[in-house]
Design goal:
The chain is α/β, with parallel strands linked by helices and 364 residues long. It contains 4 helices and 21 strands. The termini are far apart. Bound molecules: 2-acetamido-2-deoxy-beta-D-glucopyranose (4 copies). InterPro entries: Dev_Immune_Receptor, Leu-rich_rpt, Leu-rich_rpt_typical-subtyp, LRR_dom_sf.
């Protein structure tokens, strides 16, 4: 009797345990959808279509996770809880164009993790937990875009991108970068677009841009720059667009921009610049066609002179969010009187708004 009860219990346990191999992939609407994968993907015919992992919980992805030759053009492992990517994990993905690894918990990427991905357009690593990248972590990868936005990087090591190919767009925004090495961007001669916005940068080592001769767009918005040096921007001959929005600039010395031979658009908005020599700016940047200036601490007299000058030079002053209910010229806030030293932008805007509210006293 006891044995019978025992065997019934065992039977219940066996039937009640979900079949561990119950990982399925199906082909639906021109996409492979694999569900409930936790390590290895099933051996299946994977043709020239995207694959998406749905309701998957994959902690580790390594060379045994997907050893099958395939023709997939997109592989989506986002939202799978992924923490670690091992060496040579994607060598079978000869045809892959999009690798989506965003919104995971990736902390650590092995050297040569992406080796063999020869025709990628996008490597998406944004919104992970990456703190440290090792120099050469992209070795053997060819991808036009690499997105590492929304991680926890504090330092970019020397030759971080060594061994990668064809990189045109690099997004490092929304990290905690405080420090760049003068050789951080080694091997990125072809890069056209670099986003370093929303970091903690207050300094760029001289020589940083010597490897970025092809750069066209540089976004340094939302950092902590107070000033630059002669030489900071040396090497950026081909830069067309520079964004310095939301930094801590007070006196802007445009002669630091002399190396930029083709700059077309400059964004200086939302700093606390109280003195800007527009004439000097045009001498340093004769190619300038558009400038963004709003939300600096300008007196109305200075602002008027600046705007008149740019108008005479046919430089467009772009302002997408005009401040109508402030003391303003063309929607750019200003205050009456002379400003001789830097004041906080918050105080300035409050004052400009209060001054505007007092205008009705003209009727008294
Ligand atoms: C990637 O997969 C996730 C989770 O299944 C899904 O939410 C997301 O829309 C997919 N992205 C693309 C571009 O297919
Ligand atoms: C990354 O993970 C590997 C293997 O787990 C480990 O050997 C290595 O030390 C880790 N690197 C960092 C920077 O955490
Ligand atoms: C990188 O990913 C973020 C999402 O976190 C997105 O907003 C951004 O546009 C992406 N960058 C590029 C260059 O596609
Ligand atoms: C520059 O970065 C800021 C802040 O992340 C973002 O709002 C803006 O769209 C970026 N501009 C360009 C042209 O990439």
């Amino acid at each position: 009797m006891r044995e019978e009860i025992f065997s019934i219990i065992v039977l219940f346990i066996i039937i009640g345990t979900p079949f561990c191999g119950a990982q399925e992939c199906e082909f639906k609407e021109k996409t492979y959808i694999c569900e409930n994968i936790n390590y290895e993907f099933p051996n299946f015919f994977y043709g020239n279509y995207p694959l998406r992992c749905q309701d998957c919980q994959i902690q580790v992805f390594d060379h045994k996770s997907f050893p099958w030759e395939n023709n997939l053009n997109s592989f989506n492992l986002s939202f799978t809880g992924l923490e670690f990517i091992g060496q040579n994990s994607f060598v079978g993905f000869k045809n892959l164009q999009y690798l989506l690894l965003q919104n995971n918990l990736i902390k650590n990427i092995s050297k040569e993790a992406f080796k063999g991905l020869n025709q990628l357009y996008e490597l998406n690593l944004q919104e992970n937990k990456i703190r440290i990248i090792e120099a050469g972590f992209l070795k053997g990868l060819s991808s036009n875009l690499v997105n590492i936005s929304g991680n926890f990087l504090e330092i970019l090591p020397e030759k971080a991108f060594f061994g990668s190919q064809a990189l045109l767009i690099l997004d490092l925004s929304k990290n905690k970068l405080k420090q760049l090495n003068k050789d951080s961007f080694f091997n990125l001669e072809e890069l056209e677009h670099l986003d370093l916005s929303s970091n903690q940068l207050c300094f760029m080592p001289l020589g940083l841009f010597k490897h970025l001769r092809g750069l066209k767009q540089l976004n340094l918005s939302q950092n902590k720059f107070k000033k630059f040096n002669f030489g900071t921007f040396t090497g950026l001959k081909n830069l067309i667009y520079l964004n310095l929005n939301k930094n801590l600039l007070t006196l802007f010395d445009s002669s630091y921009l002399l190396p930029l031979m083709h700059l077309n658009k400059l964004d200086l908005s939302s700093n606390a610049i109280y003195n800007l020599d527009a004439n000097d700016l045009m001498l340093n940047l004769p190619t300038l066609r558009a400038i963004v200036l709003e939300d600096n601490v300008f007196s109305c007299t200075l602002l008027k002179n600046i705007l008149q000058f740019f108008k005479s030079k046919y430089v467009e002053v772009v302002n997408d969010n005009p401040r109508y209910e402030f003391f303003n010229i063309n929607g750019i806030a200003c205050i009456d009187g002379v400003i001789l030293n830097s004041i906080s932008l918050d105080y300035f805007l409050k004052k400009s708004q209060e001054d505007a509210q007092l205008l009705h006293t003209y009727c008294q």
